[in-house]
Amino acid sequence: MSSARDTVLGRIRDALALAPAPPVVVPRAYRTGRTLPDDERLALFTDRLLDYKARVRPCTADRTAEVIGEALREHGARRTGVPAGLDAHWLTGYEGEVREDHPEVSAAQLDTLDAVVTASAAGCAETGTIFLDGSPGQGRRALSLVPDLHVCVVDLSTVEAGVPEAVARLTPERPTTLISGPSATSDIELERVEGVHGPRTLVVVIRTDA
């Protein structure tokens, strides 16, 4: 004897077979093509990141290693994970232990790291969002979620004014992670708790001439 659930699902399947749904056309007439001068994009992106309680460190590309080293020292990071494809020069200003990630590293092993340093694929100034797509310099999603500190390098040239413009930079087939500030949530009394679903601290190094 079939259960009530099976009966209901069977009736739904029969109804769909008798009256197939017409193809749905999703409108894609998004507002696109918005631009902002570099200084305005930087100011808006920084404002949104700070509003999310991220730490922002603008610098020129030739100071990348210096600024990353300063951020890691400031937070007392002794062991730092990096994706296999990260520019090795970026860690030359860091005196601690650098561990290169690979698929066999477990979540428990990632949890022994104090920090992670990654590159990024794109950014959106309007929403203060950073996009990671799993490229060699960004690594797998677990690497950017488990350690308590994430130092993320964003080139200003990849930061777009709006969401459609930023999404257009992405490859749809790649796994995309969207980051808007440190991980945080609020309970029913609206008390903010950070570090619940990812890094408690996000440091964004914005390379203004890259």
From TrEMBL:
- Short name of any one Pfam family annotated for the protein: LUD_dom
Domain LUD, chain residue ranges per copy: 106-206
* UniProt-listed InterPro entries: FTHF_cligase-like_sf, LUD_dom, NagB/RpiA_transferase-like
Per its record, how is this protein called by name? LUD domain-containing protein
Give the species: Streptomyces pakalii
Taxon lineage: Bacteria, Bacillati, Actinomycetota, Actinomycetes, Kitasatosporales
